[in-house]
Amino acid sequence: MTDFTIASFNVKNLIGADSEYYRFMSYTPEEYAWKRDWLADQLVTLDADIVGFQEVFEDSALRDVIALADQYGEEQNEFSIPDGSKRYRKRAIFRKLAYRSYRDAAVAFAPNIHDGDPGHRRPGLAIVSRYGFEGSPEIIQDLGKPLDIPFQDGDAEGGYFRISKLSRPILKARVPINGHTVTVFNCHLKSKLGEYMRGPDGTAKEADLTRYDPVGRALGSARAAMRRMAEAWVLRGAIVAELRAGHPVMVLGDFNDADNAVSSEIVSGEHPFKNYEWMLRHDAEHRGDRYSEAENIQITEDIEAVRLHSAERQFVQKSLRDMVFTAAFGGVYESIDQIYMSRHFMANSPDSIGEMEYFSVFNDHLTDGSHPEAPYNKLASDHGQIMAHMRLKGGA
């Protein structure tokens, strides 16, 4: 058996000092030093074997944070781990306390193809793995040929929604662990911020709050939701391809939606009914023409084979807890950062290669954003970090 941990960490606009990322937004050297220090501390606390990072503008800034985390972690080990002269050095508690360096870890960075000039930057994401990678990680963002999602109005053609590029990249990496190769997807789906049409001068009329346009802003939210669900569909296609190739899958990141939202359910897949024998067949010829017992078994297996399972939901069911949140704004607490896993990580599955033993949420730093003097509003992350503690059987 091998124990490993996998975490999702939205670092909130990670970029070096004196670099304007959004309009008029940058960090002074002092602010960057504070942010780097906080992120490194948090990374030491996580001490995860695989970490998916979101909102990374610069690869160099992330490596800077990782290097500082290693420095802090090694200092912590010197203080808390007994040396070889102590008879109690082998006790399990000290193994649990020990920080493991990322010095030999592999780092994959996916820049955003929409990234622009200072003031118009767009963030990418990254995966850090102490197990390295099998092959080269893959970036999914420019889809090449545009994908059209068609609609119908009754029997008539009802237009379509077209997507040719994702708002942020999806990073796919294969990670070798204990004789198994696990495909890890890191994503940051379109936010709930409204998407408005901008004129030649680069401005959108809906952004002018002195001339508040409620209908126009609602349409902006609708565009954002459609884009988020289209991106979820693209991610779902990549997930299913891996599952049908027989690869265990873990998906993590900032979904910008709770796990019961439509976009999250697109990523995870359908939940099968308990029994399809009661359901009228799709090609029914009379009212009693229902699916057979054999077809019920086949349909259920086809759905379960490509379905993902929420780490958070497993934890809540096991622990009888119901207070998990990873974002807070204006008094609303939500869980929008997710870790999903294929049935290969479910103990009772015929394909099981391991299971989740525990789920950690690091959210003590979050405020609800209502007070401008809240200490971490700019320099810490505005997301909680989540981590799944996994136990994996040995592979071939």
Regions with little confidence, pLDDT below 50 for 5+ residues: none
The rounded distance between the terminal residues' Cα atoms is 13 Å
- The H-and-E topology, N to C, reads as EHEHHEEEEEHEHHEHEEEEE
User: What is the SS-derived class?
Assistant: alpha+beta
| Main beta sheet | 6 strands, mixed
Strand numbers in spatial order across the main sheet: 3-4-2-1-14-13
| DSSP summary, beta strand count | 14
Outline of this structure?
The protein has 7 helices and 14 strands.
Structural account:
- With 396 residues, this protein is of the alpha+beta class.
- The protein has a single domain, classed as 4-Layer Sandwich (Deoxyribonuclease I, Chain A), CATH 3.60.10.
- The protein is built from seven helices and 14 strands.
- It has helices at residues 29-46, 59-80, 92-97, 214-244, 262-268, 293-304, 311-319; strands spanning 2-14, 50-56, 106-110, 124-129, 138-153, 156-177, 180-188, 249-254, 308-310, 327-329, 332-334, 337-342, 354-362, 385-392.
- The strands form three sheets. A six-stranded mixed sheet has the order 3-4-2-1-14-13, with helices on both faces. Strands 5-6-7-8-12-9 form a six-stranded mixed sheet.
- Helix 1 (29-46) crosses helix 2 and helix 4 (214-244) packs parallel to helix 5 (262-268).
- The longest helix has 31 residues, at 214-244.
- 33% of the residues are buried.
- The model has no long low-confidence stretch (mean pLDDT 91).
